[in-house]
Amino acid sequence: MVARDDSGNFVVSRTLVYPGLSKVDEVEIMGVFKTISRARDLGFVDIEVDMDAKNVQEAILGELIRLTQFLGVSVLHGD
């Protein structure tokens, strides 16, 4: 995970390990949700998630659409 401010400047990074998860998609989905949760815990309310895995984005987007208003999250697909 890499966190950047609203100007795109590096703020912090973190590596997450998920023992027992072997599929890349599962790990990426868990990482996104863990990152959003941590950002919320730190008081961030306007959170953007940028990723390049279209299948993971689509899986997460289905869940986030219902939570967007609550979480203040937008999901972007990187090219």
Textual characterization of the structure:
The chain is α+β, with helices and mostly antiparallel strands and 79 residues long. Helix content is 46%, strand content 22%. The strands form 2 sheets. Strands 1-2 form a two-stranded antiparallel sheet.
What is the strand content? Answer: 15-25%
The averaged pLDDT comes out at 76
The chain-level structural class is alpha+beta
What fraction, in percent, of the residue positions are helical?
A: 40-55%
Strand order of the largest sheet: 1-2
Count every helix, treating DSSP H or I runs of 4 or more residues as helices: 2
Distance between the termini: 18 Å
Order of helices and strands: EEHEHE
How many strands appear in the DSSP assignment? 4
Low-pLDDT windows of residues: none
Main sheet overview: 2 strands, antiparallel
Counting copies of identical and different chains, the oligomeric state is single chain
Coarse morphology: globular
Q: Rg to the nearest angstrom?
A: 12 Å
Give short descriptive properties of this protein.
single chain, 79 residues, alpha+beta, two-stranded antiparallel ribbon, globular
In brief, what are we looking at here?
The chain is α+β, with helices and mostly antiparallel strands and 79 residues long. It is built from 2 helices and 4 strands.
Secondary structure blueprint with pairings:
Elements: E1 2-4, E2 10-13, H1 24-41, E3 47-51, H2 54-71, E4 73-77
Parallel strand pairs: 3-4
Antiparallel strand pairs: 1-2
Helix pairs in contact: 1-2
